[in-house]
């Protein structure tokens, strides 16, 4: 029994060891990307990300990709998008190697615009504050105002054969242009008055490749001389960084950092003020003082950073990479070039001035931040690998292990300091160590409860033999201000009587005993004690009152297991759970922090959290390193809104991507008169790791409570009354991750029929009352009623089998399911029956819906087609469309439902 309890406790404490969460996402053609070459990136006002490719535009919501093609009548081979920007609420503008295009976000279509004026390559688009659009092309500069396009003759006083304008930018009151390997400046309101500035020595023969600007300066990327700076006020050029070669693309993020794409050396982040490279993105091993992020390949085409701080890198032939959303609240401790705690599963830690001691699954690491050194103490000294607890006593560290007992190590040399008294705990599991107010340390272990006195170097070990300790498996102890203590063991709880220096089981509170085994017992600032059970919410006791009060929190995920809790200020707490960190304010509302806040790993440890009051920092041990955050960042309440969008909608039919796009633009879902139910699947536009988030939803006007969404993120409502409702969705504990949509339920045909019946019934009642009052005969007695013969509602079995055989024969011979616009009425007409009769065949004979019946034939056709060698060159979407599916998403849902696997997994199984 004791062994089972020990294994149970170890499982709860360790929670398993997993690798650090991947912080970069990748999209390729296998994921549905339109083309493997991504040349431009835009994040729009709704939160979607658009990728410009060689074949059109791909829209990304963090989970799904939706492609918008160039029209089929465009046969040019190289149509790659050079630039993309928002035009208005419903359209985008893109420039490519052919001309200017407009993308309709409602109908997901694209058309060529202003071809009569702009019939050449469009390199860049820029909209100024007054709404004027400047268009940089291979044949010069154009401007568009109120949808009227005209050429701007900037070369009137600069005769040249090269009229190409590559880039445009606004810097202060100046319009800056990269044209004919020179920089031109002009007043924004008078672009035709452009003045050209040639590069001075020693940059005279430099080739200008790219340009970007902030509010004060213009940055130029060259082939031979690195990065240059141009000041529009003084018309002076200067060198920014010279050791960057072939800077082919530049952009400036919201913090003023310069993002550089090179032809051969990957991407870089440059601080223009310090004139240094602060971060490198490369596929090559690199020794540098700058931080380095490993890219898949150095052949990048575009590098930009959106307002959320997410990096987007588009490649030539290799798709796109993007960094996961990181709001930068939590950080994983590392000392660059010396030690990175993310490589270790940290079980315990101790902050000792400039030193940080970390107990891991593979020994003890001591990192000195001042000296920039890292020392290791392993099994040879500790007798075990897992270091579960660390405490400092005097000039020594007490290091507790799992299976190796407690060891005393010099704080100066980290050399072992033998202690015969501690030998009593040899090979014991140490669960926790708690310092008392007299300089001693209480040791909770599998061999009993020990009290170590640093002054005398003695250890008094309390066991079931020499005390009333219920069990030698002691998990935790908590001490009150007066020295009284509460102890939790594998077989029950007991107390430490500081006056008599003894352990007793008498006087235990029944409600506290019912809490069972405890994870932790802590003392709060006001003297109260808090008890954290293995399951459920904690409780508090004021030793003076002796009353146990429950402690509950709003918006704390009921699926999470509470591991540890720290008091933070007045009635505030920081809680670690099995999958997240929560900050609880005075009102008891829990604020959640997860992967999108910088937690690379959210598997925490019991007895391994701490607040460093001197630096105002919170620390916690995880299976992916030692994490920390500023208390001021944890207490903040304002976060940027992260929208939630709908990726799938079903009412009386599956919505097409165009229909879904219209719903999102209008924020309105209108049901048909034939149905009063809907099903939607939602997606947060976070572009990060959101697997640790849980969501809740509410249909205002229909219900007054929140419902928890499951992991599929599917919401369904049935039998709605006519009216207008608002569907609200938000992440539990993160209210800034939210979305809402209005649901309009019209009066359905059944409801109209019911209303008519009610009115007729009321009229009938009124007629009867009138006739009785006036003693008139009822109307049915005035006329001879004709009997009405009703047809049986249930289909005859023999007739049902006849139509079933006719239907199956027609499906096998004619294959009508290959028609994506097939309707039930078409099938009924083909086999010679009514739609009503065919509907009865599906429900009473085939026992399936029309949509599932057709989907099965299409899926069988897909699987047969996929096995043919000629189909290996086609994408999954193309194969599905050949089999009758209109779009990718309904096919994925139907295939998963029918086969239990994804199409991608099925294709892989064929290759194996």
TrEMBL record:
Residues 1-19 form the signal peptide. InterPro entries: Homeodomain-like_sf, HTH_AraC, Ig-like_fold, Quinoprotein_ADH-like_sf, WD40/YVTN_repeat-like_dom_sf, Y_Y_Y. Pfam families: HTH_18, Y_Y_Y. Keywords: DNA-binding, Membrane, Signal, Transcription, Transcription regulation, Transmembrane, Transmembrane helix. It comes from Hallella faecis. Residues 805-909 form the HTH araC/xylS-type domain. The keyword Amino-acid biosynthesis does not apply. The chain crosses the membrane at residues 751-773. This is Helix-turn-helix domain-containing protein. SMART domains: HTH_ARAC. It comes from the Bacteria. Gene3D superfamilies: Homeodomain-like, Immunoglobulins, YVTN repeat-like/Quinoprotein amine dehydrogenase.
């Amino acid at each position: 029994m004791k062994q089972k309890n020990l294994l149970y406790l170890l499982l709860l404490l360790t929670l398993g060891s997993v690798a650090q969460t991947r912080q970069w996402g990748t999209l390729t053609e296998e994921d549905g990307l339109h083309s493997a070459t991504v040349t431009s990136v835009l994040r729009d006002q709704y939160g979607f990300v658009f990728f410009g490719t060689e074949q059109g535009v791909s829209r990304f919501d963090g989970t799904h990709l939706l492609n918008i093609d160039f029209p089929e009548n465009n046969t040019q081979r190289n149509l790659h998008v050079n630039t993309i920007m928002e035009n208005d609420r419903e359209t985008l503008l893109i420039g490519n190697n052919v001309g200017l295009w407009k993308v309709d976000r409602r109908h997901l279509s694209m058309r060529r615009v202003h071809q009569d004026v702009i019939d050449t390559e469009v390199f860049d688009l820029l909209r100024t504050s007054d709404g004027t659009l400047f268009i940089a092309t291979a044949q010069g500069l154009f401007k568009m105002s109120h949808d009227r396009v005209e050429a701007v003759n900037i070369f009137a006083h600069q005769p040249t054969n090269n009229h190409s304008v590559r880039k445009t930018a606004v810097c202060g009151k100046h319009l800056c242009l990269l044209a004919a390997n020179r920089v031109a400046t002009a007043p924004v309101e008078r672009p035709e008055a452009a003045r050209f500035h040639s590069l001075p020595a020693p940059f005279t023969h430099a080739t200008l490749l790219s340009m970007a600007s902030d509010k004060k300066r213009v940055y130029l990327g060259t082939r031979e001389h690195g990065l240059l700076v141009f000041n529009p006020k003084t018309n002076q050029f200067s060198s920014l960084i010279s050791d960057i070669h072939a800077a082919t693309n530049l952009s400036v993020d919201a913090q003023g950092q310069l993002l550089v794409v090179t032809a051969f050396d990957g991407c870089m982040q440059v601080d223009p003020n310090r004139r240094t490279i602060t971060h490198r993105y490369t596929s090559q091993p690199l020794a540098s003082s700058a931080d380095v992020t490993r890219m898949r390949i150095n052949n990048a085409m575009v590098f930009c950073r959106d307002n959320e701080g997410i990096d987007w890198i588009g490649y030539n032939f290799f798709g796109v990479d993007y960094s996961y959303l990181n709001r930068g609240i939590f950080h994983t401790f590392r000392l660059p070039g010396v030690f990175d705690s993310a490589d270790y599963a940290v079980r315990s830690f101790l902050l000792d001035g400039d030193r940080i001691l970390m107990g891991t699954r593979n020994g003890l690491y001591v990192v000195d931040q001042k000296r920039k050194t890292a020392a290791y103490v392993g099994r040879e000294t500790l007798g075990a690998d897992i270091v579960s607890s660390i405490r400092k006593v005097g000039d020594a560290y007490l290091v507790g292990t799992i299976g190796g007992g407690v060891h005393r190590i010099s704080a100066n040399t980290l050399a072992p300091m033998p202690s015969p008294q501690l030998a009593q705990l040899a090979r014991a599991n140490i669960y926790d160590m708690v310092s008392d107010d007299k300089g001693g340390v209480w040791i909770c272990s599998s061999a009993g409860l020990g009290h170590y006195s640093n002054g005398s170097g003695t250890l008094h070990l309390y066991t079931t033999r020499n005390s009333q300790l219920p069990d030698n498996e002691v998990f935790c102890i908590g001490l009150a201000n007066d020295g009284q203590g509460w102890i939790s063991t594998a077989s029950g709880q007991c107390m430490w009587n500081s006056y008599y220096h003894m352990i007793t089981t008498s006087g235990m509170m029944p409600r506290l005993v019912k809490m069972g085994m405890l994870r932790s017992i802590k003392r709060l600032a006001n003297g109260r004690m808090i008890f954290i059970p293995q399951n459920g919410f904690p409780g508090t006791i004021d030793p003076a009152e002796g009353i146990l009060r429950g402690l509950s929190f709003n918006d704390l995920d009921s699926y999470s297991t509470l591991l540890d809790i720290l008091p933070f200020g007045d009635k505030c707490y920081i809680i670690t759970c099995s999958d997240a960190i929560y900050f609880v304010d005075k009102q008891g509302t829990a604020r959640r922090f997860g992967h999108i806040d910088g937690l690379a790993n959210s598997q925490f440890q019991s007895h391994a959290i701490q607040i460093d009051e001197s630096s105002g920092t919170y620390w916690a041990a995880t299976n992916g390193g030692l994490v920390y955050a500023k208390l001021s960042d944890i207490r903040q309440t304002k976060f940027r809104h992260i929208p939630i969008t709908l990726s799938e909608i079903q009412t009386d039919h599956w919505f097409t991507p165009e229909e879904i796009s219209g719903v999102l633009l209008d924020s309105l879902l209108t049901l048909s008169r034939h149905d009063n139910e809907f099903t939607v699947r939602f997606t947060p536009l976070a572009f990060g790791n959101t697997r640790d988030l849980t969501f809740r939803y509410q249909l205002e006007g229909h219900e007054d409570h929140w419902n928890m969404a499951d992991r599929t993120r599917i919401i369904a409502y049935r039998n709605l009354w006519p009216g207008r409702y608002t569907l609200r969705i938000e992440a539990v504990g993160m209210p800034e991750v939210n979305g809402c949509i209005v649901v309009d339920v019209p009066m359905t045909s059944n409801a109209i029929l019911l209303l008519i019946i009610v009115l007729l019934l009321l009229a009938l009642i009124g007629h009867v009352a009138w006739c009785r009052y006036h003693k008139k005969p009822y109307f049915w007695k005035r006329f001879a009623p004709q009997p009405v013969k009703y047809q049986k509602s249930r289909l005859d079995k023999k007739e049902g089998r006849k139509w079933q055989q006719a239907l199956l024969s027609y499906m096998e011979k004619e294959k009508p399911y290959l028609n994506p616009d097939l309707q039930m009425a078409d099938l009924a007409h083909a086999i010679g029956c009514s739609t009503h009769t065919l509907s009865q065949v599906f429900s009473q004979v085939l026992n399936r819906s029309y949509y599932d019946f057709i989907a099965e034939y299409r899926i069988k056709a897909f699987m047969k087609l996929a096995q043919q060698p000629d189909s290996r060159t086609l994408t999954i979407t193309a194969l599905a469309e050949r089999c009758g599916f209109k779009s990718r998403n309904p096919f994925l849902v139907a295939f998963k439902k029918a086969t239990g696997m994804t199409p991608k997994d099925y294709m892989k199984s064929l290759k194996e």
